[in-house]
Amino acid sequence: MVSITELGRLQKVDLRDAWPHEAHNFTPWLAQEENLRLLGDTLGLEMELEAVEKAVDSFSADILARDTIEGGWILIENQLEQTNHSHLGQILTYAAGLNAKTVVWIAREFREPHRAAVDYLNEVSSQEYNFFGVQLELYRIGDSPLAPRFDVVAKPNGWSKRLVARTKEGGALAATKQEWVDYWTRFIESPEAGELKLAARVPPKEGWCRVEQLRSGDASVATWLHNNDVQARVVLWVQGPFAKAMFDHLSISKNEIERELGTILSWDRMDGKKSSMIAIETKAGDGTGEAAEFKWLAEWAAKFATAFRPRVVGVDSAALVSLSSAPEPA
Length: 330
Prior knowledge:
Elements: E1 10-12, H1 15-18, H2 22-31, H3 33-43, E2 47-56, E3 59-67, E4 73-82, H4 85-98, E5 100-109, H5 112-124, E6 130-141, E7 147-154, H6 159-188, E8 208-215, E9 220-227, E10 231-239, H7 243-252, H8 254-261, E11 266-268, E12 275-283, H9 290-313, H10 317-324
Parallel strand pairs: 4-5, 5-6
Antiparallel strand pairs: 1-6, 2-3, 3-4, 6-7, 8-9, 9-10, 10-12, 11-12
Helix pairs in contact: 7-10
Protein name: DUF4268 domain-containing protein
InterPro entries: DUF4268, tRNA_endonuc-like_dom_sf
GO molecular function, one term: nucleic acid binding
């Protein structure tokens, strides 16, 4: 006699049964490493959490992550309801303020005009920008634990082909990533870095390592370390809607700042881009040894924080608005 396996029935569950509140329940759940990986696997992205409720002017973006293959920012916005115009506007505002290269809009249900809007953004954007529309569903079989499902309803044009290229590139980059992890691990654990206010004690997988967030919001200012095997740099990175205004404000005190630091800095307004930076650099791997390189990075990161912190924290938004409305320098 043939035995018949008894099967359960898949039951769809209301999202609010698992996450009553979007900000208090769903966003913290998604920000967990295993859940962010589940989303990344669905989209074909490798990402690492950068921030939850990331400030953008007077608003907050749900999740900001970093693309660990291509290095850009990934903005994730959540909506446990049907999509609406308000969230579409928020997403574009946050993407511009954070200079995000990839945008993931998650919702219970995508209305056709909003799915079409995501498709349109992909059509008119260059390949470095990616927009995804993702419907979130929740299922269970009998009394089983709830199981989430991400259904991609909109994605970049030719994403499948680009994904193959990214996968091949990811394999080639794996060894390089591990080298950077090892390098920054040694730096973080070194005596030289012991006094730094590192943003995270998790070693990054690239040549950039964020040290300290000096200001958030309208003009986000942070100190970073950078090593490309040729040059080691300490960078004051300015981004956000008023990045140029903040850079111009600091430029007024350029001579004073350089006198305090005892050296000439590299000032790059980066016109045409949404960020600006101020940096100092030295040769990397110049034969003085890694300990000397770590000492240089740590000392200049501390000096940058001391010199720039009071100058960026004390600037109010009204002053930045006034500066941003001034004519662009010739």
